[in-house]
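Exercise 7. Predict the structure of Tryptophan 2-monooxygenase from Kordia antarctica.
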Amino acid sequence: MSYFSFHPGNKSSGKGKKAKGSVRKAFSDWIIENHGEDYTKTLQKQRSQVQKVGLIQEQMFKADDSEKKPLIGIIGGGFAGMYAGLILQSLGLEFEIFEASDRVGGRIDTWYSSEYDPESKENKGLYGEVGGMRIPQFSNDMLPVQHLALSLNYVLERNGLEDKMLRWRKFYYNSDFQRLRFNNMKAPIFAPEANTNSMNFGEAQGGDLPEVWVTEKTDENGNKFLPINVILDKVNGPFIEAINKSFETGFAKLMRFDNYSMWAYLTNVFTLADMEEYYDPKMGAPCENLSFNIASYLETVNVGTGMYSVSFVEMVIAVYDWDGSKNSYDLEDPNIYMVTMNNGMQHFPDACRTVLNLENGVTADDGNLAQVLIGMKKGQNNEYGYSPPNLTKDAEPPSSVPPADPKGTANTDKNPSKKKERVFMNHKVTQAIYDESLFDKNGGMRLVMDHTTKDGKKESVEKEYPYVISTLPNGAYLSGQEKTNFFDDLSFSKARALRECNYMPAFKAFVTFKKQFWKDLGNRQYETGLGVSASDRSNRQIVYPSYGYDADKGVLQVYSWAQDAERMGALTDEERVNECLKGIQFMYPEVDIYEHYAGYHPEVTTKTWFWDQHAGGGAFALFNPGQFKNLYPTLLTPEFKGALNIAGECCSVHHGWIVGALDSAYNSVNNILEQMNATKHLVKMKAIWGQLTAPDVAGNVKK
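Solution. The predicted structure, encoded as tokens:
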């Protein structure tokens, strides 16, 4: 669920390409090592006690699967909860997952029009992604998401469930025909014009920027540009360059500014002298900072109203995520490569649930082969390659990407596993209570939940576990129950972290048109996507579909964040759609878009989403200044002598991405296995799933 949409006019930093490896992992490790003293001390204490080994060996590791008792209770059926379950399943450890709603996936959720039909040419494209919708294809940090999908496929194929297997298709993020229109420009422009078009921000056009910033210039290579559009390259460049030279010194340099928001850094730290070769005395004295109006311009064209209030560190690290969208096998390739799930992202969590409810899941051979095929692990030739078999034709890598060289092939012999229900729907956990008397006074967690039965009746359910992993968004810990809290007796630091961790509002809408008027305009290739268009209206972005080109009908998705999202969300459903229609018409003044609009029919032709009761008051975590140093280690720290682990994308450095949920789940399982002193299981977990961004895997925490 990426949130940034950098203006096509801004250059990607060419200073220092990302080294092979995980920048995000190095970032996480650096924070823990330098600012995670309480985290490391707590883990050392918990692991030195090794309180529950005898209990685990006696009750949880029995040879007869039918006698095994659940070791871990998992709250939430999003990707963090299900990934934790899939790891445990692969290790032969029992668990149970409780999901409050009637679907799995959490903030991965596809809206399907009630007219959607995957077999119909006209209706197969009538859907859109309410939640996460794309991942960078070759990013080293993001590869575990593709690894998971491929590993699931092996299990599904062995069980004769080919219809549930997962395929990636190309997500078209950008094109030369995506439109930009700001400040009541007479007409939109196309992306290639953005380098040299002031978009009415200059004083001469009625805006507020001095003309020196929006006057066309030519660099030493003959490239034309506006000075305003090279600022972010100068802001990010020194940090990117430093990090690529040395993770440790680069992060130390970056973290000096962790207490600054992006806005504060631009207007209080960055100076005109930092423009270097682009500096012009007409801009002001070299010691001056950027003005309010310049910061406003950068926020407006790059993200959205109010988003520069978040951490400067978040914004700089985000540059790496977008560099990860490039071809890491060919640094000269300028194209962006992203993928999305064929026929909707909802198929992904549904496949997870299907496998979790089988007795046997992902095997060591499955996980190892998948790691090689998607480039997490070197092949027989001692080189990285990329050739997963679950790509549609449009998502196949360019010729500069070498194929993987795996040893052996997947075991696809039909060998259906017995079913074993582990994912329980319509089970809303309302209390998670630590009780020292449980499990022979070793302590454990008691979960209290409301279960809605198939006939609509409500019943109360209680369960007890030595360990619990809770994966809810932080706002969802306000249970809304009479007289009882979700958690009681949390440590001061944990309660504060859950309360203060910043979440970003987001708004999405899906509007159906009887004719895809957008595909017929411009000199555009028929079988490729348009990408994303942007304006300064509150609807902000129009995301064009990456599918369904051969049909007349199509769905445009509108996407915005922060204050823009809050204002859209405050309207009624129909009013939101009306605003979206006005925004789309603003981008297409030469077409009467209402002539092609399919009408306001909720769940049939339209769908809007702000946030719901399961999202807990925000779409994804996005840290405020200081929260990386002061909250991130605390979010990772287990509570109640290790009995409770908090997970979810907020408990990672990958905010707003699926892989953040996976990382947090991996770390939680790792913490539990370490406390159990389950060395063989730890080795097996790494062999199957690789080494994700789990801080103490790197050796920062010593027992």
